[in-house]
Specification:
- The complex is a heterodimer.
- Chain A is an all-alpha fold.
- Chain A contains eleven helices and two strands.
- In chain A, strand 1 and strand 2 form a beta hairpin.
- By secondary structure, chain B is mainly α.
- The chains are: A mainly alpha, B mainly alpha.
């Protein structure tokens, strides 16, 4: 095994890790602040990728426009989902939220599969990011480096807003003590809707980032979402920083496993999850007992 | 008393059904009804949502199929092998999962079932993407040839009947009442001295084992065990059947299984991928509006009528 293959596998792991991070961040935000397990997250990631594809095919909007448009469109869908459906389930067991978002995910997947078939389509890498750069130890594809930078930037921006700004403080207050916060004059229902919309917009953003390097197909989210759930469980379901760090870390670990023992690469994350749960039931960064 | 009449008429119906309705369809309904009933034991009566029951259903299907194909065992031994696999796996996964509750429990069971999925994908005897095919139905006890659909049907009825009876007796036993108590108010049950983790684990193992029997049976009916049986969509399917039929009711899951399997049968040829959309829509509708499921809503309606009538 030479340095080139080691580093390229690590880069691949870092890219997958960035996707895990940004998707588990969205899930963690929605769960941590709304107590909803959003099973539709993978489907909305897929819808984001399709937005980019269709924006190009129907309106000629390129990659950079799609990066802004897809999160907006999916965010709007998120607003609808929260207001029309999830709102009615707040007072019930969390499991109903899980089941209803699962149903929504099935509907989205089935619809896109009917409309576009199962094999999907390819999306071109934007011109500015094509090709690569030789950095001495390896050949670094520009787009892949961009993916890592863009997703981690979005992750840290989200973390910063939630943990370090007044808006984030109000958001956290609204989750912990909704009635008291509302009594203080803060519009809690709007914050709840906005949080869900931002969470799924992040997923759509990841979808656009993924479009040029993964086939845009209806099941791309379904394959990813289970791994992302495992990441969130390992990181600790309420912790935002936890999901970022765990996502990247597990992506790297998966990449390393592919080098050493390829057959185990798809199950290594689940094995880690079992081990972590035996030792630290709340997850690595979790706060709940 | 009424229950006895219902059971009797069901038995009669079951005995003559294969001469009117396509037997393979009936057998499929029975297998999924058993699967859903086993699942309901854990969710409806135990209050534990396991999102990885496909691991026991599909895994047992693989084990049964592989054991029969490779070692030439008779079908009842194949089912026994599937049940043992499900019990052992259920014990192991259950022990890990019951340490947490609610959403965490569901997530853990989901991830654990993914382990089984990837094992099914990669182990040599499972046939990868194609699964285990051409499983011979063999001769029951070495005597009765099951290749004909009618004897196979009665065998399925017998096994499923035994399974339903087992679940029914469990629910109406002191153990079942303890499970209900734990579901209703766990801290109180603990304060009364019940070893909650122990009860949950036992219920988990029982549920997994019966689900395994259903899966092994299904592999014999269709002579096939594939990745679909261990995919998490299958875990979602059984949740859907249970909720549509009625959580926490005796007949609910079976009715739900009948409904969903019939729907899929009727729609699959005509609408292709829209089946998934319709299933998802039913899911959303049930969770939002018909949380008690068909049997649950029926029971509630009967109760309201009786109250009105008696109140006069």
């Amino acid at each position: 095994m030479n340095t080139q293959s080691l580093l390229s596998q690590l880069l691949l792991g870092l890219i997958n890790g960035s996707f895990y991070a940004i998707l588990s961040l969205g899930l963690a935000v929605i769960f941590g602040l709304l107590n909803i397990i959003n099973f539709a997250h993978g489907a909305l990631y897929m819808v984001g990728a399709f937005c980019a594809l269709l924006a190009m095919q129907w309106f000629g909007i390129g990659y950079w426009g799609a990066l802004v448009l897809a999160p907006l469109v999916v965010g709007a869908i998120g607003v609808l989902i929260e207001r029309l459906i999830l709102r009615h389930l707040h007072q019930l067991d969390h499991l109903y939220g899980l089941l209803v978002t699962l149903g929504l995910a099935l509907m989205a997947e089935g619809f896109f599969r009917w409309a576009f078939g199962i094999s999907g389509a390819s999306y071109p890498i934007p011109e500015a990011l094509q090709g690569g750069v030789d950095i001495g130890i390896m050949f670094l594809p520009l787009y892949r480096a961009w993916v890592v930078v863009a997703s981690l930037a979005a992750c840290f921006a989200t973390w910063y807003v939630i943990e370090r700004t007044p808006l984030g403080a109000r958001l956290r207050a609204a989750t912990e003590r909704p009635q008291l916060t509302q009594a203080l004059g803060i519009n809690v229902p709007v914050m709840v809707t906005a949080t869900y919309a931002v969470g799924v917009a992040l997923a759509a953003y990841a979808g656009v980032l993924a479009a040029p390097i993964m086939q845009v197909n209806p099941v791309m989210g379904s394959n990813l979402i289970i791994v992302v759930f495992a990441v969130v469980v390992i990181g600790g379901m309420g912790s935002i920083l936890g999901s970022i760090v765990t996502g990247v870390g597990l992506g790297l670990l998966e990449g390393l496993t592919k080098l050493v023992y390829p057959e185990a690469s798809s199950i290594v994350i689940f094995v880690i999850m079992v081990l972590v749960l035996l030792v630290r039931p709340a997850g690595l960064f979790g706060k709940i007992a | 008393m009424r229950a006895r009449y219902i059971v009797l008429s069901l038995v009669l119906l079951g005995a003559i059904a294969p001469f009117f309705v396509y037997p393979t369809f009936l057998m499929k309904v029975l297998c999924f009804a058993l699967f859903a009933t086993a699942f309901n034991l854990l969710l409806g009566f135990g209050g534990l949502l396991s999102f990885g029951h496909a691991a026991y259903f599909g895994g047992a299907a693989y084990v049964c199929g592989a054991v029969i194909k490779q070692w030439g065992l008779t079908p009842e031994l194949g089912i026994l092998a599937g049940a043992i696999y499900a019990a052992v796996t259920g014990a192991l996964f259950g022990w890990i999962a019951v340490r947490r509750s609610g959403i965490y429990f569901a997530m853990i069971t989901l991830a654990l079932s993914q382990l089984i999925f990837f094992l099914a994908l990669q182990l040599p005897f499972t046939g990868g993407e194609e699964g285990v095919q051409g499983i011979p139905r063999g001769r029951l006890f070495g005597v009765i040839d099951l290749h004909d659909n009618i004897p196979m049907y009665y065998f399925v009825v017998a096994v499923c009947g035994a399974g339903f009876w087992l679940v029914y007796r469990t629910i109406h036993s002191p153990f079942g009442h303890a499970m209900s108590a734990i579901r209703e108010n766990e801290p109180r049950a603990t304060s009364l001295g019940y070893d909650v983790a122990h009860y949950k684990l036992l219920a988990f193992i029982l549920s997994a084992t019966v689900a395994g029997v259903a899966g092994a049976l299904k592999s014999l009916v269709f002579q096939l065990a594939t990745l679909t049986d261990v995919h998490w969509h299958m875990s979602g399917q059984v949740v859907l059947m249970t909720i549509v039929g009625g959580l926490g009711t005796i007949f609910g899951p079976a009715i739900g299984a009948l409904t969903i399997v019939s729907l899929e049968n009727q729609l699959a040829d005509r609408v292709g991928s829209w089946v998934t959309v319709i299933m998802g829509f039913i899911f959303v509708l049930c969770v939002l509006l018909f949380r008690r499921g068909m049997v649950g809503e029926f029971n509630a309606w009967r109760l309201s009528r009786r109250t009105v009538r008696d109140g006069k």
